[in-house]
């Protein structure tokens, strides 16, 4: 079904020429209409791009997959084919074969029924028949595999009207192998391919060091039933070209996702035009569009075209010069929209700052799995060395979002370790932890996105209690601290809350004695909160120790919820004071909002 979908997708572009692909050319060989050399030799096509980097000119020319053999392309090719020039790294005998093959292909094109009346074809053939290439002096600065674009009176030769038809017949001759049979894609009987004619540019396939081939079974040991090439996967010439073109088309479209340092690229498309693209929601997390999607699903007011549309998604990675299909998904668009709504519901998280989004974009989620750079106050760039970001995290997150399945347990463990190492728990990291817990089969009760006073799970309460102790110390010293309670105990408390909470209980008595005079009420409220939280632990199973990954996640979630609730209350009380109303008494009494605490909320310095 994947191959059929790619072939169908390629058919949506009627302007595409068969067996052509985009290549960059560094050099130009200019000819006159009678086949004479128009310049002094090869001329450079390299020019600065938008970023100021030197780039060759890109042209979509006749081209097919080249293996170890000699296989010239029509109208444009490497220097070794076009002029027979060898460099220090090439073999002169092979270069001579390449040039002779290119000259023979050009001659056959000019003599063919397609090229017989084409003046451009005859101009190029005349150039080679005159022996002019032998009179050109090789440029030592030119490598044998640099590409050369041939032009006649300023017109690129590959644009000649006879090129497309002659080249299609030539590819069929080379790749067909003389076999006929039933094509597994279109279901019709016709000439079959030995190998697929196209390659995927390396820039479209992460981890591919060369342009990547789709299928290449050169040795019997690699093929099913000890067969080579496409013997066990019969594909006709038309469908083979559609497969190659369709794959390049989807991977080169705007509807793709591939972040630096990741091992895959995702491409997606829908079988019918629709107004709302669910994958765009995952990537951008626009709050209004997300809310509209969830509302339409809950009210049953989705557009009619959604019910008849299929959603397709392909994930690929590379290995040197091979394309690996890492995932393939086809489902009704309605199911995809349901899964996206579930994704954002599970990602919903109470925020630490008023302008923060409650639901995170994919790029933000991928970014926060990397190392936090304390001095630069940012996460390591995507793809940077030493970022300690899993190279498959993008793929794992997208797979969980599209299929509505749990995250890999290793990802939750990685995020917890990064939080402990970095001393940073922000809203996106908390959202990832919440997502993992919501979808874990080992979570006894789905946690809330915000503070849940009814949740008596010891690890969750321990996290809340740790945040409450940190708040007591901060208020007792009015934020003027060199080393905080969290500085000393946070990393250890995640895996073993008992020792940190017992130490905090002893220290809290001294902190609470500092609340005197007008601040006495704040101390009373802090003591009340601590007594309630310690009571929940004492009445249950006691203070937890030696937490497993799920309990560590609950500890961090409780810690984040308690802080988010505290900062939200402080902001609300400050707004009430600014409006001249009486603040509520549900939070520690302070004359001004705790901006220092809010600003430092995302980071616990190591």
Distance between the termini: 52 Å
- Summed up, the helix count is 21
Could you tell me the strand content as a percent range?
Answer: 5-15%
Question: Spans with pLDDT under 50 lasting ≥5 residues?
Answer: 586-602
The gyration radius over C-alpha positions equals: 33 Å
Largest sheet: 5 strands, mixed
**Pairing-aware structural class of the strands and helices?**
alpha+beta
What general form does the structure show? elongated
Helix content: 40-55%
Total beta strand runs: 18
What is the typical, i.e. mean, pLDDT?
89
Pfam family, one: Cas_Csd1
InterPro entries: CRISPR-assoc_prot_Csd1-typ (IPR010144)
Protein name: Type I-C CRISPR-associated protein Cas8c/Csd1
SSE topology:
Elements: H1 2-10, E1 20-25, E2 27-31, E3 43-44, E4 47-48, E5 54-55, E6 57-62, E7 76-78, H2 79-82, H3 92-111, H4 119-129, H5 132-135, E8 147-152, E9 155-156, H6 163-176, E10 180-182, E11 189-191, E12 199-200, E13 208-213, H7 237-251, E14 256-257, E15 265-270, H8 278-284, H9 287-299, H10 304-307, E16 310-332, H11 333-347, H12 362-367, E17 372-373, E18 378-379, H13 393-403, H14 409-422, H15 427-438, H16 458-476, H17 485-495, H18 497-512, H19 520-539, H20 549-578, H21 595-599
Parallel strand pairs: 2-8, 13-16
Antiparallel strand pairs: 1-6, 2-3, 4-5, 7-8, 8-9, 10-11, 12-13, 14-15, 15-16, 17-18
Helix pairs in contact: 1-7, 3-4, 8-11, 9-11, 11-13, 14-15, 15-20, 16-17, 16-18, 16-19, 16-20, 17-18
